[in-house]
Amino acid sequence: MGINRNIQLKIKTIDKLNHLNSTVTRLDNGIPCYQIDAGTQDLIKLEFVFKAGLFYQSKKLTASVTNKMLSLGTKSFSAFKIAEKVDVHGAYIDTSVDKDSATVAIYCLNKHLTKLLPVLQEVIYEPVFPEKEFSILLNKTKQEFYINLEKVKFLASVNFNHLIYGDRHPYGLMTEKEDFDKIQLSDLKKFYQEYYQSDNCKIIASGKIPKNLISILNEYFNNNTNSKEPKTIPSPNEEYIPGKHKIEKPGSLQSAMRIGKPLFNRLHPDYKKFSVLNTVLGGYFGSRLMSNIREEKGYTYGIGSSLLSLQHSGFFSIVTEVGAKYTDAAIEEIYKELKKLRTEKISESELKLVKNYMTGQIIRGLDGPFALSEKLRMLIQYDLPKTYFQNFVEEINHTNSQDLIDIANQHLSPSSLIELVVGS
Amino acid sequence: MIGFEKFTLKNGLRLIVHQDRSTPIVAVNVIYDVGAKDEHPEKTGFAHLFEHLMFGGSINIPKYDTPLQQVGGENNAFTNNDYTNYYITLPKQNLETAFWLESDRMLDLAFSPKSLDVQRNVVIEEFKQVFLNQPYGDAWLLLRPLVYKTHPYQWSTIGKEISHIENASMDEVKDFYQKYYNPNNAILVVAGDVDPAEVKELVDKWFGDIPSKIIPERNLPQEKKQTANRTLSVKRNVPVTAIYKAFHMCSRTDKTYHATDLLSDILSNGESSRLFSKLVKEQKLFSELQAFISGDIDEGMFIISGKLMKDVEVEEAEKAIYLELERIKTEKITPDELQKVKNKIESSLTFSEVSILTKAMNLAYYELLGDAHKINEEVKHYEAVNANEIQEIAQQLFSHENESTLYYLSE
Fold first, then answer.
1. What was the ipTM of the complex prediction?
2. Of B59, B74, B100, the CB nearest to A364
3. Contacts of A104 (CB under 8 A, 6+ apart)
4. Among chain B residues, CA nearest to A134
């Protein structure tokens, strides 16, 4: 068979994306329920999302522990009964908290859905915060925290976050050992009353959506629990001081490092262009940081960079763990790569590759109902239109190398960065 | 139910095509039937190091990643004790690029000395990052040689020690490639919005002329039946003590595999499971405690591992584990409890079919086990297990003589 293996195949660029196909219906009490009917399996994920993330807590640990406690005892079910009901129906309850939101999600086969809703209803509307469960949970969490303190990566992550946002910003609060003695059950109940209310809730359903979903949800989640008092919305005070920091971790074989700064979220006009720049630098396997520091020098198993978007801010960071003896050399190379972005034009072929890679990444993010629901959740959080991804692809494709030099000079001067090394 | 078509090329390459019209991406997954268990005991970690070298350029294509990224694709790979798995996801329009890349590195590699030098370093950093510089990170490196005395499962995929990786030579790399990286030792799965006949044609075009070779017969030293209890204690700078127990169990294709899996679920799947509800919640002896099976193809390990709450004595914690094991050996499992773990399995099998890549990987794995069709029989096998079988497995497994324990003590 005469095939020529030396010649690269023609690249088919994808310039049209399918829009996210979702609908929204309000429950009788006003909770919006977004629905993505997709996939081939007869299953569903129901997510209840509250604006009750770390941003809203005034005392450390409150947001995460409140969220975990929801499924540990309700008006009619003990923690064990809840776990048993969930397990018996082959379901999973997933509670999680990030900087902005708190989530209670249930994953199940559709045939079990209606049997699980009475439990879920109480988890969300009638948690009782049992003392005994609180003490077990706190001890476990504390122990996990102590173990995490032995990981250079964990230390780098929490301390960097603190350096970025500081003590006066709710994103900057850093959990410390003594916080586990300060948190009280009353803090959780108060936080729950304030933030886990129907007027602070959104539902996202994804999978094979039953035809009668809205009427079933109305049956269980139609309570009107709008808070009587206005919610406390913290006013963030962004201040950060660029500079170099080191935390000693004796005996470490590797150093964990972070280099970055507070920046902006995805609503900022420069977000998309910066995303292209970030991808060139450290956003994929072929990125400059990976090519240089892993594939050329072998200093690390992995290195990357990201621009993390939050509701009220965003931050840029370069993240890696390198062999202890390569620490200084790796830092030097990182700054060299940043300088290149500020001074040298990115070649057309590299830029084209990155644009195509980013388009592919968006398409991969549209595989299956749960990936779609994550995308939808992001659109809802930032109040973006369904055409967002199509626009995103168009805009990155219009970005040129001069734009990227400008962006790099504007945002990535070395004197504006925070550098943190954790190691021996 | 996952439908597919299976073809075998003249050179022995097996091709499985699964059609799923609902997704914009295609997954391409290749398994080579070689893993850490095929390594020489003094040259461990090699299969995994080799996996890294598969990205260092092939005979006609200097860089593997670049053309794939140019068409919006993403790829990675993993190695375990049994096999090596390479995977790609990309927009369906560019599927053929994946075949071009994947077939060229099946045909021949570039064997760049620079790539070997660098990847030795990268893997050593991986060794540190994942195993040595983590609390409890070396537990598996200690447990395996305690459990296995002759079978090559006694070492981890990363290898026994860093020096084995440092000493890997180019001749060994070439020899390994010649032996194992051949079409008749590989399984290719393509899943997505594709037409099986078209895929077959393209695969013929790109892979059809790669010559097959003789694959060395796998003749692994079999583990002798363990006859005495084994323990190992180590002291480490960790905040709390951990216990790791391993019991020898059956192979992946044994008829008691599904019952053994359900046994681990009764003990530890979900927060209503026995170990969690009793030992973590009620007695507060552990902050975490799991029972699970290693999932190896040859005779594997049934593991019980957990971290003790501070101030709990090892003897007390261990005694509580033994009590639960005794209970499952002697008291009958109720129909409700059995149904619960079966429902959980049904769910997790269904949920594993949500991502196109997972489907592709699973199809390749079942074909490696002997027949991709078995993927659709799993629910049935679990459904058929009864309470007596689970209890019999518990009685066989949980004996003093079949047990190895690693005490990972906080200094």
1. 0.94
2. B74
3. A47, A48, A67, A70, A71, A93, A94, A95, A120, A123, A124
4. B281
With CA atoms as reference, the chain A residue closest to B347 would be A90
Asked if B385 and B262 touch (Cβ cutoff 8 Å), the reply is yes
- HSE-up of A130 (CA within 13 Å, CB side)? 15
Q: What stretch of H or E contains A60?
A: none
Closest CB to A285: pick one of B23, B65, B287. Answer: B65
User: B28 near B190, Cβ under 8 Å?
Assistant: yes
Q: How far is CA B51 from the centre of its chain?
A: 15
With CA atoms as reference, the chain B residue closest to A326 would be B125
Our CA angle for A192, A197, A199, nearest 5°, is 150
Instruction: Inspect the interface and report whether the beta carbons of B237 and A150 lie closer than 8 Å.
Output: yes
Quick check: B374 and B366 in contact, CB under 8 A? Answer: yes
Contact predicate B404/B143, CB 8 Å: yes
Contact B240 A83 (CB under 8 A): no
- Per-residue pLDDT of B218-269, as tens digits, reads 999 999 999 999 999 999 999 999 999 999 999 999 999 999 999 999 999 9
Instruction: Determine the distance in angstroms separating the CA of B345 from the nearest CA of chain A, rounded to an integer.
Output: 7
Q: How far apart are CA B301 and CA A205, in angstroms?
A: 39
Chain B CB contacts of A251 below 8 Å: 237
Tokens at A334, concatenated: 């990182």
Tokens representing residue A380 in the block: 């809802």
Residues in chain B: 411
B346 vs A: CB within 8 A: yes
Distance from CA of A51 to the nearest CA of B (A): 27
Tokens of A209: 């959506």
Is residue B313 exposed (0-12), middle (13-18) or buried (19+ Cβ within 10 Å)? exposed
Assigned CATH topology for domain A23-221: Cytochrome Bc1 Complex; Chain A, domain 1 (3.30.830)
CA dihedral (B57, B62, B63, B68) positive or negative: negative
Q: Does B236 touch chain A (CB under 8 A)?
A: no
Q: What residues of A are in contact with residue B103 (Cβ under 8 Å)?
A: 5
Check: CATH 3.30.830.10 for A243-423? yes
Q: Do domains A23-221 and A243-423 have the same CATH topology?
A: yes
Cα(B170)–Cα(A42) distance, integer angstroms = 51
Q: Is the CB of residue A263 less than 8 Å from the CB of residue B43? A: no
In chain A, what are the domain boundaries? 23-221, 243-423
Would you call B310 helix, strand, or coil by DSSP? Answer: coil
A291, amino acid identity: S
pTM of the model: 0.96
Q: Which two tokens stand for residue B378?
A: 């799993």
CA distance A228 to B345: 44
One-letter amino acid for residue A361 of the chain: Q
- Give the model confidence (pLDDT) of A217-275 as tens digits: 999 998 777 766 667 777 777 778 999 999 999 999 999 999 999 999 999 999 999 99
| C-alpha A261, offset from chain centre | 17
Which residue in the set B126, B281, B288 is minimally distant from A136, CB to CB?
A: B281
CB contact under 8 A, B20 and A40: yes
CA triple B139-B297-B246, angle to 5 deg? 35
> DSSP states of B354-380 as a string?
SSHHHHHHHHHHHHHHT-GGGGGGHHH
